[in-house]
């Protein structure tokens, strides 16, 4: 039996981003934001809030911070538009909600939460998701909320780079790594329930209608009270082909590994099968925190078993 | 090592459909169609075609047959429109392609195949997928190709039933079961490669933009040469929450079960975790065929290790 009376929380702000982290000022902004959001999550958990409520709160705060590629800070696609994906999952009963390719929604994670709780579906996309948002009373947010000067400059750079990208080794390319932004949160509450949330603006200059792993249950997000809660960030297609969240959960269930062992074994599988690029954060049913990555950096933070909050970049 | 020199193929045409199968004439039409399409698949496999080519061919033929809820026979959504989902996966390297909520595409499985082979993405949806179809030279098919009198009558019936559906036990409702149409194909070729394909029109009267399990790698479709190829049909949300394809594959990989044992264990998991409704067809790396279901019927057929073709309804 899992012991209760303590809580754990992990959040991430994307993999890659070597270039940004080389600047001490930017690194410090990431550090402060991760720390602040962990402490918000702690308040929810300490006051008896559920894991689900905690990951929804943390993901919302990460979406609101323009530092991260989700919600407000979402990158622009090939048409210069913001199209966002998000999903949330409740480890108590495997209920889940996801949205993909939504525009003008300030907090896609909250829309995904509504899909989970107010519809009979798991996934709603594009215009259908916006129609549902309207039914839920979620208002559309104007374009200028999303279009920051940084994101416009970044798209212009990506369009230029597209012409020369074939000369690069993608894995080592810092520009490429820069594209893999996502945010996520996984938590275990005081009563041992698990939940996970993931949200993203996708890849800079991505094709219209491209859906990555973030809104795919089992790939970018997974939570099962029997095993663990997982959120992934990286090259979405690698995660979609290997279902990394489900793989780590299955390694716990079928091989009786703990969360730390299953995360390591999951990353081995990810490398062996598809030379996967990215990282994961995992809280297991006992509140153990772990992270695994194949990129050089993973912006993340954690509170393990009610201890002090920690921030890490690798 | 898996033995070579023989091939296996399974196809399905949906779960549920009790009402239709009670009519001997309709049952006979299903039987003939399944048999005919299996024999087409055999020709591809006997002439040395790949598993991938075989599942693409069989899924295309199933889409073309208005008997089945995919391609031409797709059901209508709440707006009286056809919105289709499809995915294909190659067990050699886990490459995959998927499309969701596409309209006016005669063969969504072929568009999914193009996403796999000609884009760097796994999943393209809605208008973005149609834009890609255009780039690939896939022409749009007019509405009247899809809108058969049967499908229009069925939508009217579903709209009427919606008012009374709460009085029904969903699992036992034949009307409800009728909604779970999907088509799928899984194959092992002469050299031991595996592939899977799944395609659907979704659920009658479904919400606009609702995506089910069919285009989700790991849920409605999965193939890995190390384990097995899986296609699912049923209540999509149940499969999305449990990732049944990936579960069966992981049971083979992590518990060293064979395909028959893993299918049975996967169905147990599906029932235990979400009281799942639906069925799966599985060909394992050795060419063993199996099927599992929690509904009363599963329209399917198989050729095991180059033997004669068989058709089953349960």
From TrEMBL, chains A, B:
KW Protease (keyword) present: yes
Signal peptide stretch: none
Domain of life: Bacteria
Active site: 182
GO BP terms, alphabetized: proteolysis
Residues that, per the record, bind substrate: 210-213, 233-236
This protein's UniProt keywords: Autocatalytic cleavage, Hydrolase, Protease
Record site: Cleavage: 181-182
SUPFAM superfamilies xref list: N-terminal nucleophile aminohydrolases (Ntn hydrolases)
Keyword Acyltransferase attached: no
Single GO MF descriptor: peptidase activity
PANTHER family (alphabetical): L-ASPARAGINASE, N(4)-(BETA-N-ACETYLGLUCOSAMINYL)-L-ASPARAGINASE
Protein name as annotated: Isoaspartyl peptidase
């Amino acid at each position: 039996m899992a012991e209760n009376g303590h809580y754990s929380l992990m959040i991430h702000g994307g993999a890659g981003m070597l270039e940004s982290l080389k600047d001490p000022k930017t690194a410090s902004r990431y550090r402060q934001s991760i720390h602040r959001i962990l402490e918000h999550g702690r308040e929810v958990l300490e006051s008896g809030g559920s894991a689900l409520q905690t990951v929804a709160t943390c993901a919302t705060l990460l979406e609101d911070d323009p530092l991260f590629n989700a919600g407000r800070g979402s990158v622009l696609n090939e048409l210069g538009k913001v199209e966002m994906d998000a999903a949330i999952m409740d480890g108590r009963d495997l209920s889940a909600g996801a949205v993909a390719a939504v525009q003008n929604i300030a907090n896609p994670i909250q829309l995904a939460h509504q899909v989970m709780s107010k519809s009979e579906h798991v996934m709603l996309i594009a215009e259908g998701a916006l129609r549902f948002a309207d039914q839920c009373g979620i208002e559309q947010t104007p374009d200028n909320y999303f279009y920051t000067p940084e994101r416009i400059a970044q798209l212009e750079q990506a369009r230029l780079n597209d012409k020369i990208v074939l000369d690069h080794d993608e894995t080592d390319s810092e520009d490429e790594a820069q594209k893999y932004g996502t945010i996520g949160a996984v938590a275990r509450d005081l009563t041992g329930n698990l939940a996970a949330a993931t949200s993203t603006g996708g890849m800079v200059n991505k094709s219209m209608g491209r859906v990555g792993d973030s809104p795919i249950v089992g790939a970018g997000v997974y939570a099962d009270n029997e095993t663990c809660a997982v959120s992934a960030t990286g090259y979405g297609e690698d995660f979609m082909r290997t279902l990394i969240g489900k793989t780590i959960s299955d390694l716990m269930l079928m091989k009786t590994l703990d969360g730390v062992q299953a995360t390591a074994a999951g990353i081995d599988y990810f490398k062996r099968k598809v030379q996967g690029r990215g990282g994961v954060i995992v809280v297991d049913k006992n509140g153990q925190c772990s992270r695994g990555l194949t990129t050089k950096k993973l912006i993340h933070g954690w509170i393990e078993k009610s201890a002090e909050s920690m921030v890490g970049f690798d």
